[in-house]
Write a structure and sequence with these properties.
By secondary structure, this protein is of the alpha/beta class. The chain is built from nine helices and five strands. It binds adenosine monophosphate.
C-alpha cells in the first residue's frame, strides 16, 4: 500500500504516520523529519536549511528530492509493503517530482489521506507539541506562515489529485486513537 498524508501543520500527520507505517509495514518518509535530522547532525545540508526550516518557509524542491532519494537508497525496500509520504508533496512542482519518483519505483499511489483539523485547534496543538518536542518552528508567528503556505501551495493539490486518485478527508479532531481508527476503517475498505 502506498499513501500520501496531507494536512496543515499540527493536524497530526506525523503521529498518524508512525501508527500507520507500523500497522501496514510501510516505509515512513517524512521530509520534515529528515530535514530536522540533518539540522540536528549539523551537516552541511543541515547548516544550509536551518534558517529556512526554523522560519517556517519551504526548502527548495531540489533539496527535497535529494534527501528523499538518499532516504530511499538507505532503506532496504524489500522489507516494506509500501511507502507512506508525510509532508511531501508540498506544491505542484513536488507533485510532479512524486509522480516521477513513483514511476521509477514502479508503484502507484493507493490513496491520499487529508487529515482535516480546524485552524482554531492548530495553534493549541502546536504549542503543546513545542513543550513536548521542543521544535523551534513551533511557535505562533511561524505557525501562521506555515498555515499560509499550506493553504496557498499544498491545499490546491487536493483538487489536483481528486480527478485521478482516491482522496479521503478524515476528521483529525479528537483523540489520537479515534483519528487512527477513522483512517484504519477507511483503509480496510480500499
Ligand atoms: P513538517 O515536519 O512536515 O511540518 O515540516 C517542517 C518543515 O520542514 C517545513 O516547515 C519546511 O520548512 C520543511 N519541509 C518539510 N517538508 C518539505 C517539503 N516537502 N518541501 C519543502 N520544505 C519542506
Amino acid at each position: 500500500m502506498n499513501i500520501v498524508l496531507f494536512g496543515p501543520p499540527g493536524a497530526g500527520k506525523g503521529t498518524q504516520a508512525i501508527l500507520l507505517s507500523k500497522k501496514y509495514n510501510l516505509l515512513h518518509l517524512s521530509t520534515g523529519e529528515i530535514l530536522r535530522n540533518e539540522i540536528e547532525k549539523n551537516s552541511n545540508l543541515g547548516k544550509n536549511i536551518k534558517e529556512i526550516v526554523e522560519s517556517g518557509k519551504l526548502v527548495s524542491d531540489e533539496i527535497i528530492i535529494k534527501v528523499l532519494n538518499l532516504a530511499l537508497d538507505s532503506n532496504e525496500k524489500k522489507e516494506y509493503s509500501g511507502y507512506l509520504f508525510d509532508g511531501f508533496p508540498r506544491n505542484i512542482d513536488q507533485a510532479h517530482l512524486l509522480s516521477n519518483l513513483l514511476q521509477s519505483l514502479k508503484i502507484k499511489l493507493d490513496c491520499i489521506i487529508l487529515i482535516d483539523v480546524d485552524e482554531s485547534v492548530l495553534l493549541q496543538r502546536i504549542l503543546t507539541r513545542k513543550d513536548i518536542e521542543g521544535r523551534s518552528d513551533d511557535n505562533k508567528e511561524t505557525l501562521s506562515l506555515r498555515i499560509q503556505l499550506y493553504s496557498r501551495e499544498t491545499e490546491p493539490l487536493i483538487e489536483h489529485y481528486s480527478s485521478t486518485h482516491i482522496v479521503k478527508r478524515i476528521d483529525g479532531e479528537g483523540e489520537i486513537n479515534e483519528v487512527n481508527q477513522r483512517i484504519n476503517r477507511f483503509l480496510e475498505c480500499l
